[in-house]
Amino acid sequence: MPGRATETDWSYRHGVTDARKIAFATFVRRALEDARAMRAWSGTEVSRRTGVSRQTINRWVRGDWASDPEAERVVAFCEGLGLNPAAAFAALGWDRAATPRATPTPPPMDPDVEALLRRLVDPNVSDAEKFHIRETIRYLAYRPTLPADSGKRGRQAG
After folding, report:
1. Are 30 and 61 in contact (CB under 8 A)?
2. Where does the HTH cro/C1-type domain start and stop, copy by copy (predicted)?
3. FRET label pair with 73: which of 54, 91, 101, 114, CA 20 to 30 Å apart?
4. What Rg value do the Cα atoms of the chain yield, rounded?
């Protein structure tokens, strides 16, 4: 394309010499260009949709990282943009044939929480009730933590 800088020009201007960094920076830059062109997403929108901070994305574009990006962030970035993470992993030179790290087993779920989740997906439960369940969960999840001994105060013998 006339007037378009080559990858070599870009890497020289940005001081990036590691081939993996250049390849990953190119992958991220193209993904951002596609998001802007096809979806009209800004950098902020890409960050919001992928869950990866703008600072991290900018470091990736510049090839400004000392250790490899976290696989979870790379996957989140790709999935948020509808891309196959294997392409990003290939750019990073990660061996996909290697044994994947074992994911930790999640702790057992409380039976009451399981019951709430079942109600939230049950088509026979009204939208209004589902709304109240979600609002109650949000309230409980984000309320300030009570002091550890606060429950004992009300039960003191008098």
Report:
1. no
2. 32-88
3. 114
4. 24
Give the domains, in start order, of the chain with CATH numbers: 18-92 (1.10.260.40), 111-142 (no CATH)
What is the SS3 assignment for 67? coil
> Average pLDDT of each block of 10 consecutive residues along the chain (158 residues)?
50 60 92 92 93 94 88 94 91 67 72 89 92 88 73 54
Query: Encoding tokens for residue 57?
Result: 């994305």
Region for 42 from its dihedrals, namely left if φ exceeds 0, alpha if ψ lies in -120 to 50, beta otherwise? beta
For residues 80 and 7, the answer to whether their CB atoms sit within 8 Å is no
Q: Got the DSSP string for 100-124?
A: PPPPPPPPPPPHHHHHHHHHHH-TT
- 91, 20 contact by CB (below 8 A): yes
Amino acid at 64: D
Q: In 3D, which of 110, 106, 108, 132 has the Cα closest to residue 119?
A: 132
Q: What is the pLDDT of residue 19?
A: 85
Return d(Cα 52, Cα 105) in angstroms, integer: 24
Per-residue pLDDT at 152: 57
Find tokens 């020289």 and name the residue: 12
